[in-house]
Specification:
Distance between the termini: 52 Å
CATH class: Alpha Beta
CATH topology: Rossmann fold
Order of helices and strands: EHEHHEEHHEHEHEHEHHH
Radius of gyration: 17 Å
Helix content: 40-55%
Structural class: alpha/beta
Number of domains: 1
CATH architecture: 3-Layer(aba) Sandwich
CATH superfamily: P-loop containing nucleotide triphosphate hydrolases
């Protein structure tokens, strides 16, 4: 059993929750989640990453850790919340969702609600919570995005990825989501390519949904990212001088303003 000391002391404030999501798998969402958590932690923010890709959790692989307990153990009553908190890279606290667990992939509304309450219970103990959600538009994704202060939408320049990114925004807005959604365009060859993708996506969300998508930034195509995957470590840790790591720092600088007392003003849909 993990020691109770894995749970950090209370900070006296509630953490800012960022949900990293995507419409399509394979766009680099989990890599971004892990590296965002590491960069926040390096800047002195007490950070917890929760792998909320239920049943297909793999953030622990990119973080280079072997979790002994997961959210599955918590749901089954085999462990307390503090028991499943692991020590990750860069002093990040880590909670795994469990990989290849059918029961987690098919978790019902009550089960997901329990996890959302558990995540909220973590809030006083840290400054930042990163939720690595699954891909797609199922309730297993949108329920976790709905409890976040900010959503971070990841896409690439692939047409299917852009279409699916629009799809997740559409479902969230139709469900009443009115908080900021920040867009990151991953694996691009130039800033111009990223800008074109964002403007296309933003134009669709404004025209058809009346929702104003925010620009957060880009991550370039960089062999260091794949090299880090092979090393089972965050690219910002093993290749800190890489181009991807420099762009990651820009992304965190854009998000850092929301950490602490500066809670976001809800993003009202346009009439």
């Amino acid at each position: 059993m993990a020691e109770q000391t894995n749970q950090p002391p209370k900070s006296g404030k509630k953490a800012t929750i960022f949900a990293v999501t995507s419409g399509k798998g394979g766009v680099g969402k989990t890599s971004l989640s892990v590296n965002l958590a590491c960069e926040f932690s390096r800047r002195g923010h007490r950070t917890i990453i929760v792998d909320a890709d239920l049943g297909l959790a793999n953030a622990h692989i990119l973080a280079g850790i072997k979790p002994t307990r997961t959210l599955s153990d918590y749901i089954e009553g085999k462990a307390e919340l503090s028991d499943i908190i692991e020590q990750g890279p860069c002093k990040v606290k880590f909670i795994s969702g469990g990989s290849g667990v059918k029961e987690m992939a098919n978790l019902d509304d009550n089960g997901r609600a329990r996890l959302c309450v558990a995540i909220d219970e973590l809030s006083p103990f840290c400054d930042v919570i990163i939720l690595d959600t699954g891909a797609g538009v199922s309730k297993g994704v949108t329920d976790f995005v709905s409890i976040a202060d900010h959503a971070i939408l990841v896409t690439t320049s692939n047409f299917a990825a852009i279409a699916d990114a629009y799809g997740i925004v559409k479902v969230l807005v139709q469900d009443g989501y009115n908080r900021p959604i920040h867009c990151v365009v991953n694996r691009v060859r130039s800033p111009e390519e990223a800008e074109q993708v964002f403007l296309k996506l933003k134009g669709c969300t404004e025209r058809f949904l009346g929702f104003d998508l925010n620009w957060l930034g880009l991550l370039p195509e960089d062999s260091s990212v794949e090299g880090a995957v092979l090393k089972r470590a965050p690219f910002s840790e093993v290749f800190p001088g890489s181009v991807a790591a420099r762009y990651l720092a820009k992304l965190v600088s854009g998000l850092e303003r929301y950490v602490g007392d500066n809670k976001p003003v809800p993003q009202a849909a346009k009439s």
